[in-house]
Design a protein that fits this description.
The complex is a heterodimer of chains A (648) and B (182). Chain A has 648 residues and is of the alpha+beta class. Chain A contains 17 helices and 11 strands. In chain A, 64% of the residues lie in helices and 12% in strands. In chain A, strands 3, 4, 5, 6, 7 and 8 form a 6-stranded antiparallel beta sheet that branches. Chain A has a 4-stranded antiparallel beta sheet with strand order 2-11-10-9, covered by helices on one side. About 1% of the residues of chain A have low confidence. Chain B has one domain: Glutaredoxin, CATH 3.40.30. Classes of the chains: A alpha+beta (648), B alpha/beta (182).
Chain lengths: 648, 182
Amino acid sequence: MIAEIGLAALWLAAALAGLQLLAGSLGLTARGEGLAGIVRPVAVVQGALCAVAFLSLIVLFCETDLSVKLVAMNSHSAKPFIFKLAGTWGNHEGSMLLWVTVMGLAGGFVALVEKRLPEPTMLATLAGQAFVSLGFYAFLLLSSNPFERMPVVPAEGQGLNPLLQDMGLAFHPPTLYLGYVGLSVAFSFAIGALVTRQVGPAFARAMRPWVLGAWIFLTLGITAGSYWAYYELGWGGWWFWDPVENASLMPWLAATALLHSASVLASRNALRAWTVMLGVVAFSMSMVGTFLVRSGILTSVHAFAVDPERGSFILALLAINIGGALTLFGLRAATVTEGQRFAVVSREGALVFNNVMLSAILGIVLFGTLYPLVAEAMGAKVSVGPPYFNPMSALFLVPMLIVLAIGPLLRWRRDSFARVRPMLIVPALLAAAVAAGVAVWSKAHVLPLLGLMLAAGLGVASLLPLKGRDLRRTPLSTWGMVLAHFGVAVALAGMASESAFSVEKLVAARVGDTTRVGPWEVKLDRIEPVAGPNWTALEARLYASYAGSRQIEARPQARSFWSPPQQTSESALVTRWNGQLYAVLGEEADDGRWQLRLWWKPFVTLIWLGGIMIALGGLLALVGRVASDLKRFVARDRIADRRESQGR
Amino acid sequence: MSADDPKPRRWAIWLPLAVFATFVVVVIYSLSHPADREVASAMIGKPLPQFDLAPAIPERQGLATSRFSDGKPRLLNIFASWCIPCAVESPQLDQLARKGVEIDGIAIRDRPEDVKAFLARNGNPFARIGKDDVSAVQLAIGSSGVPETFVIDGKGVIRYQHIGEIRPEHVPLILQKLKEAE
């Protein structure tokens, strides 16, 4: 019954999306004006119906209703409750339903609250949102119905990929999806603005909270995904330039650029065409990313998400949506009127420079991710890895970070370097000192050295916009900017430190042996079997002591899941303020020795701390912007009320 | 000096669409030409990397690079007991072994008792099996997944890489590659 309710809600929502598209488009014409009034309510109801469908699926998973095919294929009655819940979106159909649900809810929310835009732009935006949604509804209902019943009810479900039975991963995909879908709203705004030729500050202000929100989720998603890969895959690395990682990085890069150019458009009425294009590109990158992950045309460590036939369907959607939007952009961009002018040395100039750098990095990542495909089409099989991505992205990242240190200090419209130069002396000296220190005391390579140096300089420079301000009266959005930019420096310091100072040891240790790795002494105390709800494991009991201090216990495991049968290694981490000890248990050798892989990674945790700071900075900016918008609304209402009462 | 917001140039306006169109063409091509399993890896024509792996089953022999320079072409099969396609290809490996092909294996991230159970279930075509618990040799050899099968000539040079499971229709190809490696 619940499955049928869900399916019915989904069909109804799809029908309403069709109505929303029709009424929204006709509402723009003179004859269909009467239809314009229903678009907003339809969008709200559509969102509500999506929520009903998604809640139904959650209930089915939580009850482990094995008569539903999706549940039987992906769940198991012995699975811990939280993973039953996460199982709702830990599969293709469920994740697509989550996608349309978030899209529907976002569309409904826009329809309810967005009052700044001219009504025709609003209609075009909602029609655009409905158009994109319709593709996904078709995808769900025609080729991946999440509510399909089983002809015969099986006795037990087939479990969930054990790699996915992990708290981090349970919430990693939905976080990314919220980001992707938030960008779909920005995309719809861009379409609406292009259709009605209303590319101006009002459009940027309407779009900005959505871009900010999406960007916060993407930042968190990437940070969490990186940490997950770090401890779950057991290779000690935190970024692999894997196609799936790149698929989440590309929308983030585009969204970062969009966020900044939307700010310029909102406050300075410049960068019009550029902002609209980034609005289209950011969501396009989300769809391209999803396509690359789902279609399996690229080989990846995340191969569990693959399905080639569905890939073709997403490709068709992609071609229609992105191709259509970019064509519209091509047709309309020439008529987008010129915005405000500004000098090269100005805050706008710095933002433009960094936008170009971000776009260049995006291009490099896109090219590197797709190059294996191109090469394969030409008959060669290659894989593109860190030797390409690291130096190529650094080429653009380094100038970008330098400008990032200076840009926020510049004034809008026109400024001179001579004015900001005195402020930059301290960060520049610090960067030089760090570079000299690292070069003398360690054998770090060029890139890590450069990274540490830039991190030091940027770390100080990012705080300078607060200098001389009354901190209590500084707007939240400025705090957000400072925190996010400081977070970039922190993350960069972590990345550079990890690659410059990590120590690795691979040993075959007997029980009772002590191994040295960096400042740590790690004793293998014993190996014992342990059992979890749906797995058994061999667990090593390690006692690690940092430079002779108190012993800390660490328990890496070699885990066997039984449904479906699969082996994973659970690394053990010992976190100190200045880094992490990372331990992986390998095989037993024939002579009673055990393979142990140990790393000491100084300051590696800064990578994710920086990521969280960047996201928090975004959150501060979002709260600040929304609060000031609200204030403005209230003030405007009050003025309107007063006028009305005076009129009487 | 004063800069813009200049009007974008004509060609620049259409650049994103052109990039996207290229992407779609490449992707459609890739989807319609599924991964060609005969395609060579970067390691083809290069000697095997140096390794000396402990045995995957304690009482048997391990696997070292030195074994591959005795003048006899061999298959090197990268597999794991936890890998389903590896079980799917085992009849084909057995068939090859029965035809006199010598096959050595490397078990990836595996445990002795699991390997034993796997071989008991699916047959054991392997002369020797080394174990690679951290995928170090696997990566060095240019393999990124399981199963993969390499044709190694008598001098220890990698001559051919087969990615994915060996299906019945691939057996003649493998035999031919072994012959070419002689």
